[in-house]
Amino acid sequence: xxxxxxxxxxxxxxxxxxxxxxxxxxxxxxxxxxxxxxxxxxxxxxxxxxxxxxxxxxxxxxxxxxxxxxxxxxxxxx
Amino acid sequence: xxxxxxxxxxxxxxxxxxxxxxxxxxxxxxxxxxxxxxxxxxxxxxxxxxxxxxxxxxxxxxxxxxxxxxxxxxxxxxxxxxxxxxxxxxxxxxxxxxxxxxxxxxxxxxxxxxxxxxxxxxxxxxxxxxxxxxxxxxxxxxxxxxxxxxxxxxxxxxxxxxxxxxxxxxxxxxxxxxxxxxxxxxxxxxxxxxxxxxxxxxxxxxxxxxxxxxxxxxxxxxxxxxxxxxxxxxxxxxxxxxxxxxxxxxxxxxxxxxxxxxxxxxxxxxxxxxxxxxxxxxxxxxxxxxxxxxxxxxxxxxxxxxxxxxxxxxxxxxxxxxxxxxxxxxxxxxxxxxxxxxxxxxxxxxxxxxxxxxxxxxxxxxxxxxxxxxxxxxxxxxxxxxxxxxxxxxxxxxxxxxxxxxxxxxxxxxxxxx
Lengths: 78, 418
Known about the structure:
With 78 residues, chain A is an all-alpha fold.
């Protein structure tokens, strides 16, 4: 697992209070991890802080799974 | 009018995070006061408070018992305390598995005096220093006062009246009185009612200290809350929550519920005098107690115990005592009156509910809790049993609970065994 993936998963576990094993790359924040739309706003803010990236609203709306988040961050971090 | 009884209790206090632990510590004469550990008090006039203790403490509070990890991250402490106390109460009442129809008739009315001050203070700094786009999406609903009622209704599926009282330090008593009326008026069969507070933060302590309301006996925190004592100099801030399950009497009887007490009297009044100072003749307090007695159909001599508002402020204690003296007349010789704020501090919006629970336990156990630190009673205390230092076994037929708040708002509750 990449370093980015590790850090993303850690943030998800902390924010959503889910077990680490459930945070697979294919897991959907809403369907599998019990998040609501506000939780996703908060997660995106946490990713921005952690990785120093800016995730605009239109990009944030497309982040549905853990993998989506990792891919976006890896493609856009400085 | 339908009769309303208490069938469940829940407490989170600086002396215990469950009913029996808190009550045992109160009766043992322990104090929950100490130096503030939650933040650096440098520059504060007051550095002491009655904090709810951490989970690893002998009588600490473990939020993980009843509050979701995700909710804990999103909300202020007063909501966490409130959810837990409500959970204790509904479990105690044996009402966690109500049918859909029953849940339509079960509501929540848990208020707070101040609400999410710590979170408002910290998030305002985020907005100022990092910008509006860094403000948490959970900021608003993690701070609003009615969000204990909201969270509790969601957690337990309670779809009856959903309400939240905000009357400063009268909140808890008003919440119980108002919810009892909702049941009496047939709006619900079951209500979770009470109050919570969690305002021990730099801004909360500074604000009350600037209003000259807090004790500054910083070198002796356990001696600082001393209602009715000559050397009192203000209140000690507490935190936590008290929640009761109120239930329509026939409903409780039909399911064989354990009935602690009946809510038989409720009085409310306004001072219409000053925002922080009580009326100089205690007129609001007097009329509040008088109305509660009238509703209860009792005479002063029927009351055996008064849990006083008694915050340990120089003026407030004196005026409450004066009002009780005028209302009770000769009957004051036989009543016991104490302030449990001497032990757990002033829980502000939580106080009235927590103290109502102590009243109910006094009825159950036929013992009245002490007023700590009452070493030199004020001259005005002559001839009144203020239960100094040690709990007292005595007959307790009916109890009166007083709560008075900033804005000149007063509430009195009277309870009796069924």
